[in-house]
């Protein structure tokens, strides 16, 4: 028997297997069924570690197959078109696993601290990550939908994990309803595309478009264009691009912070991976998609809107978590700029998107992790006011938070700066000057609200008697922060190696 | 060389050190006396080293230690990381460590003086950083940046020492900021790779932001934010222009490069040239600051702690003027030349005259000094806009002058603020009676600031005005510009002297002022080197000018040639690469295309295998530019 297909799919399989094992382990553990709420009794410690190890193993497998080279494995194409196991999906498997593992570590500190210590968090997280990995590897609209739903169902549950809190329930419901609508819209778009081309696999769709365009101009462009637009709308919900972002702030704010981290990091990266693959592999044809028609102008408009609106609103927020939610919308806007550029500069722009998502993953996990670290039970860091004077009271926590925020703001020599630089380079290469100017002005806007956190932490003293955030102590959170800090610094200072990697990961377009 | 010879050679420094150690009266611990002696000896020694040594030039040429600049930049940055690991309770260790790192930095930077500044780059160090994008760690000095580096390393310890006197809270953070800032500023002065320059340029911003924000006055947060947002707006536009320039270079040659030497060979099409010139220059004008984007400066200065003000005025503003000279004029000589007369008009009306008039009306001494900075830097910019060798030399000299005299002014204003916690001119009057030494020093520094002959300010301003008068770029306006600038000199005397008159002389009315103590030995130590330098610069400007004149001449020649080319070329809608022989070989030493010393022949593919999906398209040096239709 040829084991190569299994080897090629091993990152997915490892994660799936680990998830099953952890679920069993959780069910048979004594934890959770007992009434006691004491901190040491919760299952979080072991499960968080187990989840992190599972996902890191997944990441290691992805990296291993990367070095072997997926094209060297004979059976790696056996699962096509449903799962395409190329360097592109390996890269995203790696990013998603790292994002998931770091979120699990954050949960290991967060859940016990906030008395949410129930074991089901971790299997849900793992299976969501699995869905996200499938989504990134999907080469067919059906497996795409499957991956999307696998990912989303887990995240819906994670968002509502704080059962006692009405906000969390609201977040879950809102996310679930809008997410379902988005999924339905995506499905409808897929059906239209199928109707126009007779294919659900991306390569087939592309071939059908090319052949009809060659013989009789365009076959049924209106149906096809509406289909593409609907697919983009469906995925834009997941990346929370304006105007499909309405759920984001509420869902991000209501969900427990590790779940928020996962949503901001993994869900967004996976959705961008799919968007990239669908648009490049199926609709990357200049005949259909020039500036005059097709998706680039749509995405360009969305990028402008996303960046500007998100940054303007983020500046007005009073809650730090909500600010970070809007900031993640704004970052989606920056990535969209790169996505628009793919049509002209191809590989370069794709590489910039992938580098951006990796850097964004590290910085965002760090920022949310620092926010978790800054608050303990009953003394959570919610608003800016809560963070007043933190720099004096807890210099280490404040410094970590500042570091990640500076990376998100794009200050050298962090990953955030270099990734933004790389996006700018790609967009300039594609001659999208307006997008570039709007992007750079937006990053100035964004500096305002990121710095506001620093203002409160270092430059304001708390009002007497006001509630203050008291940092928690957790080895898991600290570990996650150290790992992300290393990643942020390495990506920012020595990006060479990673640039080569993302360049290799780019899809062969056209 | 025997110890005896050393004593003979350096007798002056030795004597000065001993005198300084013995001189202070009253109860003064031995440790302080030794420190004082050492600092004085070091200062005198550094002044001694400034003088060119006959005969030594030839032997010294050979050994330029290539890592010198890396050490200069790296030491403070690593020191900043090191400070984080010192427990915050050990105050004196944190402070001592910072001072030692900064002080050693100054001593190391003196080694730059051992090399005669022939045209071209010295202490050049190049190493690939991000090869796939052609980004390199490329640092070097020439006669222009030499003085700014020395200014930075000279001011750094003084500013730190002054801050330690007044700032008692969160000292660890302060030291971290000071060291990081020092490293970033030095990096910005020596970086010859645009990307590297940008990294340092941005890196500098955060510590300064934090310094104003934490230890500043009542409106500190607003001031800090204003500084950050203003500077960042400019720098982000600069980043975009920088990438555009590198991208054009890539289209012309097939190779990515952010190297200043490589990019100065690119002549963009006219609209793109203008756009990029403005994108770069606005960033620099904000930093300088020039009217009308100067409004962050008074706020920042008024709110900043004394140490922060000193660094901001003495060094950070110079990065704007230096960068304009190096990058705006170096990369876009065409627009810099054709816009010269207009920009010079703005520098005179908005900077020199308006700045002086506003300074005159200020009630707060620090705000007054801040606006005087606007006026003085207007002079520097005028010297650069005129583009004459004299004007540029004067401008560079004036950058150093302004650093020293304004640094000293802020230091002295800090002294009085520490005693009275107010800086309002109306609160004072007649304090010459209670603080005679302080008054003498303040008047002296004031003279330097308004350019009384014999002090440093005179030489710089004189050269700038002379340069303006003879400038071809300013054309028929040169005369008017000169008159305006000269009026500025008079106004400077008016506002500074009237403030001095109101603060120090007249009757001693305010009861609180009667008990003021005169300047303390600690403050004396901080101010003494600056006062010494005022006279050294004022009386022997030629030792400074000699070292910079070759580099300035080279920059000037290049500007003339390239701007001529650019103007000839201006009507075409295409970007072009100038042939390498347009530039002097000394300038191109170390440029990415130039091979030397067995450097392996790098095929263009080597740089591209990583990132570009599409193969680079090499065309015939000229290609259609769609860059203007922004």
What descriptive keywords fit this protein?
heterodimer, A: 510 residues, mainly alpha, 74% helix, B: 630 residues, 3-stranded antiparallel sheet, globular, disordered C terminus, membrane (chain A)
- How much is the average pLDDT of chain B? 81
Spatial order of the strands in the main sheet of chain B?
3-4-5
**Fraction of helical residues of chain A:** over 70%
What proportion of the residues of chain B form beta strands (DSSP E)?
under 5%
Largest interface: A-B, 43 and 46 residues
> Which term fits the overall shape of chain A?
globular
Structural class computed from helices and strand pairing of chain A: mainly alpha
- Output the radius of gyration of chain B: 24 Å
Counting helices, strands and paired strands, the structural category of chain B is mainly alpha
Oligomer: heterodimer
Question: Residue ranges of chain A: pLDDT <50 for 5 or more in a row?
Answer: 32-40
> How far is the N terminus from the C terminus of chain B?
66 Å
Major pleated sheet of chain A: none
Assess the beta-strand content of chain A as a share of residues: under 5%
| Rg of chain A, alpha carbons | 22 Å
| Continuous helix count of chain A | 20
Distance between the termini of chain A: 35 Å
GO molecular function (chain B): NADH dehydrogenase (ubiquinone) activity; NADH dehydrogenase activity; ubiquinone binding
Region (Disordered) (chain B): 589-630
Pfam families (chain B): Proton_antipo_M
Subcellular location (chain B): Endomembrane system; Membrane
